[in-house]
Amino acid sequence: MSNEVAAAQLPLDAENALVAELARLVLEESAPEELVLFEDNAAEYFRDPRAVAAFRPRDEPVGFGLDMVMLTPYVLAVAVPVVQFLVTTMAEAVAAESATHLVGLVRRRFRRKEVAAAQDAAPARVEPLSKEQLREVREIAFRAAQGVQLADEQAKLLADAVVGGLVAR
After folding, report:
1. Residue 31: inside a domain, yes or no?
2. At the top level of its lineage, which domain of life is listed (predicted)?
3. Which of 34, 71, 77, 89 is 20 to 30 Å from 24 by CA-CA measure?
């Protein structure tokens, strides 16, 4: 898998729903007090994702040591490339699994039911992310956090929280 994140392969609404879901997982652990306003803040973010750069630090710490008004827009901004990576990774896995399934369907056309049935008997399951994939998710999240002007230490904390949100579930 390359270090570049491929463009999202989902409709924007579906991608935004996944981004919001991942952001909510991160905020449940990092800044649960922000969940009360999450829907409004997420809707505002999705209307203009570039506006996250306009947020500036304040004196009140929020979340896990990040000194800013709200953690939510930063978590959403970081979640976008992470979701795009996960969609690409899962699409590759689904394509490989689909090829196997298609072979079974074609074999049914050949009336080789016993072969097709044996191959179809394996249950489909989502494999957990590998350590390498989790490292890549962390790197993507870290770069995205830097891209919205978070300091390196804050970017590392946010990247760790994103990975933690994926592993804990």
Report:
1. yes
2. Bacteria
3. 89
